[in-house]
Amino acid sequence: MATIAINKNGTLGIMENQRLAVNTGVTLSSNLISACLSMIAIIGAVFLFVVEKREVGWQFFLSISLSFLAFIFSIILGGKGIDIARKKAHQGILDLDCSKSKFNWQAIFCILGIFFCILSYVFTSEKVEKNEEVKKLNENILKIIKLNQNEKDENKIILEKVKALENKINKLEIEKSVEKKETVPNSH
Q: Kind and range of the H or E element at 130?
C-alpha cells in the first residue's frame, strides 16, 4: 500500500492524488471484472433453467449470447485498462485519461450484458401449455384404446352368439335329417 505524503498545508501531494485516483480506477475495474465473471456463471444457470423449464426461440439464444459476449468484452477491456494504467505508472506517468476510455467501455459492456441477460427472459414462454396438450392427447388416445377394446369385446360377444346360432342350426338340421330318415318308408 502506498504511503500518503501530506504537504505543509495539510493536503496530499499531486502525485499521491494521481496515484490514488489511478489505484481507485484499477480497483473499480477489478471489481467489475469479478462482477462480470459472476454474471457469466449466473447466465449459465439461467440458460440451463430456462432451456429446461420454458419454451425458447432464436431470440432467446441471440440475447443470451450477446449478454455473454458483452461480459467477455467487459472483462477484456478492463484487463486492457489495468494493463495500460500499470505500464504508465511504471513509466512514472500517473494519468487517468490514458485508461479512462477502456474503463468506460468496460462499464458500458457490463451494463449491456445485464440488459441482454434480462431481455433474454422476455423471449421465453411457459411449457405448461404443451404439457396440457400432451395430457389431452394422452387422454384421447386412452379413449380410443378403450373404444377399440369395447368394440373387440362386442365383436367377441357377437361372434359367440353367431357360433351359438350356428350350433343350434346344425342341431336342428341334424334333427330334421334324422326325422326324415325315420319318416321315409323302407322300400325293401
A: helix 128-183
Backbone φ and ψ of 124, nearest 5°: -120, 160
125 forms beta bridges with: 55
Rounded CA separation 186/77 (Å): 124
What pTM was computed for the model?
Answer: 0.59
User: Measured between alpha carbons, how far is 41 from 38 in angstroms, rounded to an integer?
Assistant: 5
Locate 6 and state its grid cell: 501530506
Taking only the tens place, the pLDDT of each residue in 48-101 is 988 888 888 899 999 999 999 999 999 999 888 888 887 877 777 766 677 778
CB within 8 A of 97, min separation 6: which ones? none
Residues in contact with 122: Cβ distance below 8 Å, sequence separation at least 6, in sequence order: 63
Helical (H) or strand (E) element with 54: strand 54-56
CA distances from 163 to 7, 24, 153, 160, 170 (A): 120, 100, 15, 5, 10
Cβ-based neighbours of 32, under 8 Å, separated by 6 or more: 74, 78, 106, 107, 110
